[in-house]
Amino acid sequence: MVVAVNSDASVKRLKGDSRPVRNEAERALVLAALGDVDAVVVFEQDTPLELIRALKPDVLVKGGDYTEATVVGAEDVRASGGRVVIVPLTPGQSTTAIVEKLRGK
Predict the structure, then answer these.
(1) Residue 53: inside a domain, yes or no?
(2) Range of the domain at 91
(3) What pLDDT is stored for residue 105 in this prediction?
(4) CA–CA separation, 55 vs 31, rounded Å?
(5) What is the per-residue pLDDT across 4-35, written as a single tens digit (0 to 9) for each?
(6) Residues 35 and 78 in one domain
(7) C-alpha to C-alpha distances, 64 to 19, 45, 70, 82, nearest whole angstrom
(8) Helix (H, G, I), strand (E, B) or coil at 80
(9) Do 63 and 42 share a domain, yes or no?
(10) What gap in Å lies between CA 73 and CA 5, rounded to an integer?
(11) How many CB atoms lie within 10 A of CB 51?
(12) Which pTM does this prediction carry?
C-alpha cells in the first residue's frame, strides 16, 4: 500500500496559511508506522493526479467528503481496470473539527 500525502506547501495553498497543523514529515512518519503501509509519498502538486498516473493503482481510496465524481484520478484508475473506494469519515475527527474544538467553538 502506498499512501500519498500533500506537501506542506500544497496544504497551505489549498487550505490557507494556518495549515497544515502537523508538518509533512510528521504526517508521513505516522502513516509509515502503520503495519499495512509499504511506502509514503509526499507530493508537491495540489492534486495527486501525476502520482496516480505514474503508480497506476489497483485501488484508489479517498475519504467520505469526496464522491467518485470528485476524486482526482478516478477515471484513470477505472480505465486501467482498478476501482475507487470512498471510506466514510468519522464524525468530529477532521483536522478542522479538532482545531475548532480546541478553540472552544
Answers:
(1) no
(2) 58-105
(3) 74
(4) 18
(5) 999 999 999 999 999 999 999 999 999 999 99
(6) no
(7) 21, 22, 11, 19
(8) coil
(9) no
(10) 15
(11) 16
(12) 0.89
Do both 66 and 88 map to the same domain?
A: yes
Residue type (1 letter), 59? V
Opening angle at CA 82, ends 76 and 88, nearest 5:
95
Q: How far is CA 70 from CA 9, 33, 39, 46, in A?
A: 22, 29, 25, 14
State the pLDDT at residue 60.
98
Are residues 62 and 42 both part of a single domain? no
**What's the total number of domains in the chain?**
2
Q: How many CB atoms lie within 10 A of CB 46?
A: 14
Question: In this structure, what C-alpha cell is assigned to residue 85?
Answer: 473506494
Instruction: Provide the 10 A C-beta neighbour count for residue 48.
Output: 20
Can you tell me the distance from the alpha carbon of 84 to that of 69, in angstroms, rounded to the nearest whole number?
Answer: 10
Please give the C-alpha separations between residue 50 and each of 10, 11, 66, in angstroms, as whole numbers.
Answer: 14, 17, 19
Cell of 95: 483536522
Q: Which residue's entry shows cell 506547501?
A: 9
Identify whether the C-beta of residue 71 lies closer than 8 Å to the C-beta of residue 84. Answer: yes
